[in-house]
Design a protein that fits this description.
The chain is of the alpha/beta class and 295 residues long. The chain folds into three domains: 2-76 and 142-163, 2-Layer Sandwich (Nucleotidyltransferase, domain 5), CATH 3.30.420; 78-138; 165-294, 2-Layer Sandwich (Nucleotidyltransferase, domain 5), CATH 3.30.420.40. It is 36% helix and 32% strand. It is built from ten helices and 13 strands. The strands form three sheets. It has a five-stranded mixed sheet, with helices on both faces. Strands 11-10-9-12-13 form a five-stranded mixed sheet, sandwiched between helices. A three-stranded antiparallel sheet has the order 5-7-6. The longest helix is centred in the first third of the chain and has 15 residues, at 46-60.
Length: 295
């Protein structure tokens, strides 16, 4: 059975297919003709957009062969609410859940009930054994429903859904399995004027942060965040940096290599490990998600 990953990225659609030998057998990127984040436009023109998506997904020929396959959808971090904050785990579960919901309501006081909520304990315990940080992951149901509606309207059954920054961890584990097991890693995602940072130790995420950027401050923001992790998480002492993302990622990688030449900085490239093509690094999350779908 093959696995297909679909990613909606603002005005673009990316698709990737792997076989049961974990090999990439197809990938493509095309313009969508609409912005997936424009909820109001979708509500006004649902039928037209569904029809347009049908044309675009057929253009990719991702479903051209008749073999069995499963489909998963990738969401970008910019489409998700993500936040890190402390929680007292000495409290009972209901109080913890209430605290997390309250945290979200501070940012979305009118619509916090319209989110699918999950949280991940980071096991930092930086204050005491009970106070720990959590990573809150909140998905706007309206955004998810748009993607689900587009797929359902074209006979595409979604098996699961994931977020690009976290799906990329699976890509690292597949391509650089020994480093993933034995090294502490900083993963940087660079997409749509946004940088996402995941600090990974002992194969688990220990901290997450992000910054909105532009072409003028991207390098300084990345360097500032790397220095922050160095100073705050001294005990982790990461020595590997992986990057994936859009057309500016190679330039960013070269800059970090120059400024932090004591690190091993690599482009996360699922297509050809020796080819530093940013067009391939953008497929790292799709590949990671497809690998998860094989299990």
């Amino acid at each position: 059975m093959s696995c297909i990953s679909i990613e909606f990225s603002e005005n673009f659609l990316r698709v990737l297919k792997i076989n049961d030998s974990r090999e990439i057998i197809f990938k493509d990127e095309i313009g969508l003709g609409f912005n997936i984040n424009d909820i109001l436009n979708f509500k006004k023109s649902r039928n037209e957009i569904t029809s347009l998506f049908s044309e675009k997904i057929n253009e990719t020929k991702i479903f051209e062969n008749s073999e069995d396959y499963s489909v998963c959808v990738l969401m970008e971090t910019s489409q998700i609410f993500l936040n890190v904050f402390p929680v007292d785990f000495h409290e009972d579960k209901n109080n913890i859940n209430s605290h997390i919901l309250w945290e979200l309501s501070n940012y979305y006081p009118e619509t916090y009930k319209d989110f699918i909520i999950k949280y991940y304990r980071l096991n930092n315990n930086y204050l005491n054994e009970y106070i720990d940080e959590v990573l809150l992951i909140a998905i706007d149901k309206n955004k998810f429903d748009i993607m689900q509606s587009l797929c359902n309207g074209n006979g595409i059954k979604i098996k699961n859904i994931d977020i690009d920054q976290f799906a990329s961890e699976k890509c690292i584990k597949e391509i650089y399995s020994e480093e993933f097991k034995s090294k502490n890693i900083l993963l940087i995602g660079n997409k749509n004027n946004r940088l996402d940072f995941s600090l990974i130790a002992n194969e688990k995420i220990k901290y997450y942060d992000f910054s909105n950027t532009n072409k003028h401050n991207q390098k300084s923001v990345a360097l500032q965040q790397i220095n922050y992790f160095q100073n705050i998480f001294i005990e982790i002492n990461f020595d590997r940096i992986f990057l994936y993302g859009d057309e500016s990622t190679i330039e960013l990688m070269n800059f970090i290599n120059e400024e932090k030449n004591n690190y091993n900085v690599k482009l996360l490239n699922p297509v050809n490990e020796g080819d530093n093509s940013v067009n391939n690094s953008i497929y790292a999350p799709l590949y990671g998600l497809a690998l998860k779908n094989l299990q």
